Amino acid sequence: MVVADYTGWEFLIEDPVVYAAAVAMILPFAVIAVGFILNYTGIAIASLFSLFADPEMVYAAINYLFFPGVMLHELSHALLAFLTGAKITEIALFKREGDALGHVSFINRGNFFVQSLQNTFASAAPMFCGAVVVYACYYGITHTELLWLKILLGYIGVSMFYHMTMSPADIRIYLRGLPVFIAIVFIVTFVLRVTSVI
Fold first, then answer.
1. pTM of the full predicted structure?
2. Rounded to whole angstroms, how far apart are CA atoms 91 and 81?
3. Distance of alpha carbon 72 from its chain centroid, rounded?
């Protein structure tokens, strides 16, 4: 019988169960942390500019300036809600309601497992879809010679990044599906680790 002799943190990398458990516990909460940080970074930037101008005007200017990000944010909620089987009841792409600039309403459908996926993926959609959009814009900028296209892609990428956030309401919905999401991340990571994909 071979007994592993770990002198440090190697067991986190070597043992597939421990590795998968670590990823499953860190990744879902990292999504919340990044979304929360981006949300309050945007608020902090707006607050800083508000020291020099009317806060309402600053808020409106920033959000109207980056309106493509607002629309992509709301469309990403709708897309992942739809793809996971939820029924979309309303999409407001640019409709100010208090602190919110838009919203997507959906009704959960299916069993507990499916509804958990709907809650998690639909609420965190701006993070997942936003990352894809921002990367695609970056890729386009670095692979084109056209100045106008670089500017357009840069504008869309910055707009999406600014709205790649999770509101407190998004986080509450995300947490409803968290146990199932953690289990899925664990299983997928374990399989990928055992098969040496990662």
1. 0.81
2. 11
3. 12
